[in-house]
Design the sequence.
């Protein structure tokens, strides 16, 4: 009996996670673009749009006539919705890239939660130590202290995004 799945390409978990992350980023970009449609353009946003078009011209996606036609569309656009025809068929401009999230304080909240969870174990270990049960004190107190220490190092460590910058 032959295995009908043997010849199929194998997808590993890392590829699936990468696809999911890319889909999430793309969905955030589409949502940001949709929220910006009724908003009026600023001069800076027009300049960024023209810079994006000239970059597309520089890499060969647009010819000179097409560049001039699209720059005219950008200059005449009033809202972001009016700007969309200028980028039809091109990668979305940097105007609609989602803003990176700031490293939150949720790591420190997790650290405080871990301290509260470890506190009864530490106090129990301290009570055992007071009554001369060193082994029981070590069994209760040291893992709690180690867990709090590891959580503290994790909470103060820079996130991946801040390491890249």
Sequence:
């Amino acid at each position: 009996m032959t295995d009908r799945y043997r010849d199929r390409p194998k997808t590993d978990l890392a590829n699936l996670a990468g696809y999911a992350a890319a889909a999430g980023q793309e969905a955030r970009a589409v949502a940001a673009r949709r929220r910006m449609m009724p908003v009026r353009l600023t001069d800076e946003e027009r300049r960024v749009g023209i810079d994006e078009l000239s970059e597309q011209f520089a890499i060969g996606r647009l010819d000179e006539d097409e560049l001039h036609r699209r720059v005219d569309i950008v200059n005449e656009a009033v809202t972001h919705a009016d700007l969309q025809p200028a980028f039809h068929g091109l990668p979305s401009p940097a105007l609609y890239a989602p803003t990176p999230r700031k490293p939150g304080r949720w790591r420190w909240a997790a650290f405080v939660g871990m301290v509260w969870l470890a506190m009864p174990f530490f106090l129990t270990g301290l009570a055992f130590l007071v009554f001369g049960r060193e082994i029981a004190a070590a069994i209760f107190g040291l893992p709690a202290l180690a867990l709090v220490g590891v959580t503290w190092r994790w909470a103060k460590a820079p996130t991946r995004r801040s390491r890249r910058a």
